[in-house]
Design brief:
Layout (H helix, E strand, L loop, with lengths): L7 E7 L9 H7 L5 E8 H4 L7 H19 L5 E5 L1 H11 L1 E8 L4 H16 L4 E4 L21 H11 L2 H4 L41 H5 L1 H4 L12 H6 L4 H11 L1 H19 L22 H9 L5 H13 L4 H14 L4 H11 L5 H12 L14 H8 L4 H6 L15 H20 L1
Parallel strand pairs: 1-2, 1-4, 2-3, 4-5
Helix pairs in contact: 4-5, 6-12, 11-12, 12-17, 14-15, 15-17, 16-17
């Protein structure tokens, strides 16, 4: 840490909100009356679980460098630390005169635990940690039923979400007006990726700019994975390099279907907040924890590698492994196939997606997996089991997507199906029925 100042300061802690504009917590920090010192922590507790070539670290690093460049044009800078957040905040509290610390809310179990500890550290030095809503339009218990209970099914939640929406919730924070309130100083260099044990990735990251016409035609094109028809903005939403308020305003104007997808994202965030057990490896519906899952490592590896003999499933997995992205239609199909065709514990698949997806978000990933398994927030019955062949005929009729990712399909080099669809379906239904019957006893 190179900052030395006798001034009383406010600190703004960047996490999953990597932008200077329309940033709620930063706006409040800049209006605090104290000069603002931006901070980013490469959290060792999180990073220790990642592989050395994880491309998300390169993406975050590039965004921090961009923020630093923008701040330096203003005569300001950013403090970038690597370590355990509690230890870093203890050091900051001991060496700086911190009036207040600001950040934006994170709803994941680890983040809540971490922020509670950091808040106590700051309180012991006479400061406070203030968190604001920034990554969603509505959070926690803002959208409730008429009986003042939490929504657990998407459709009524989405209706109530839209009824509550108005221009106030969609308006941007005018951060730029207060940029003069950053502390003027110059930081030392950002810790290198190599010093933190990571390699620079050459993967091409999706743009944060999406043509209006793509969003306008989202409804009719989004289910066909061979088409370049989705926004690919999940990565930017995950790390806050774009504003959800700006995106929701555009979706409201251009595509009700796209807006619905943004609402799904918020639905799962409020589920994670209100039912934190889903973020700790438990089914939303406890009965499904009675299912006797398989842990067949050979079958799991074939699923991971895209070698199941079901080309639509394999294409999705190969796309994920190659570029860190999978079309949403394929996320549903591959998750269903692992949990229902192979009867392999969905938590293994959830963890694999968490490792590979550039846009990995705990709430959305967990919600999507539990939806596919039937254990989550879904009004549909558990016995919905996707047929990979039927999905291919409907959504990739000319096999363009399959040919792109499984070029050997149709040759002797392509494997036979590792499981028979009808047999797998019958086995799944029997296993689920046993589990649900057990729960009733």
């Amino acid at each position: 840490m190179s900052l030395k100042t006798k001034k009383k300061v406010s600190i703004f802690w960047f996490r999953r909100d990597l932008r200077l504009h329309d940033n709620a917590g930063l706006y409040h920090a800049l209006k605090s009356g104290y000069p603002v010192v931006p901070l980013f922590i490469f959290d060792k507790i999180i990073l220790d679980d990642l592989s050395a070539n994880d491309p998300r670290l390169t993406f975050i690093y590039q965004e921090i460098e961009s923020i630093q460049s923008q701040l330096q044009e203003l005569g300001a800078d950013i403090m970038v630390e690597y370590g355990k957040p509690e230890e870093i905040w203890e050091r900051l509290a001991a060496t700086l005169d911190i009036a207040e610390a600001y950040t934006n809310s994170d709803y994941e179990p680890y983040a809540i635990e971490r922020d509670t500890k950091v808040g106590k550290i700051l309180e012991s030095s006479g400061a406070t940690l203030k968190a604001y809503k920034d990554q969603v339009i509505f959070e926690k218990k803002e959208v409730m039923t008429g009986q003042n209970t939490v929504y657990t099914v998407y459709t009524p939640y989405s209706r109530a979400w839209k009824e509550k929406l108005n221009d106030f919730y969609l308006s941007s924070y005018p951060n730029k007006k207060y940029f003069g309130n950053f502390l003027h100083w110059k930081s030392s260099s950002i810790p290198s990726l190599k010093s933190m044990g990571f390699e620079k990735s050459d993967l091409e990251f999706p743009s944060r700019q999406t043509p209006d016409e793509k969003v306008e035609h989202y409804a009719e094109n989004r289910d066909f994975p061979a088409k370049d028809a989705t926004s690919r903005l999940g990565l930017h939403l995950r790390f806050g390099t774009i504003s959800i308020r700006k995106l929701a305003r555009e979706a409201q104007q251009l595509s009700p279907t796209y807006l619905n997808e943004l609402i799904w994202r918020e639905f799962y965030q409020q589920v994670l907040w209100n039912f934190p057990h889903v973020g700790r490896g438990k089914s939303f519906k406890p009965a499904f924890d009675h299912i006797r899952w398989s842990y067949d490592q050979e079958l799991f590896k074939k699923w991971c590698d895209g070698q199941t003999g079901y080309p639509m499933v394999d294409a999705g997995m190969r796309q994920l492994n190659a570029i860190g992205f999978m079309h949403n239609r394929l996320r549903m199909l591959t998750a269903s196939f692992l949990s229902k065709h192979l009867l392999i514990d969905w938590r293994l698949g959830e963890a694999y997606f968490a490792e590979k997806l550039l846009d990995y978000d705990m709430a959305a990933n967990n919600g999507g997996w539990q939806w596919s398994v039937g254990s989550g927030n879904d009004a549909a019955p558990y016995f919905r089991i996707f047929s990979p062949d039927a999905q291919q005929k409907r959504f990739d009729p000319n096999m363009e997507y399959i040919k792109r990712w499984v070029p050997e399909f149709g040759t002797s080099a392509y494997p036979e199906p590792i499981v028979d669809h009808k047999e797998a379906r019958d086995r799944c239904l029997a296993a689920y029925k046993r589990a649900l019957d057990t729960d009733k006893k």
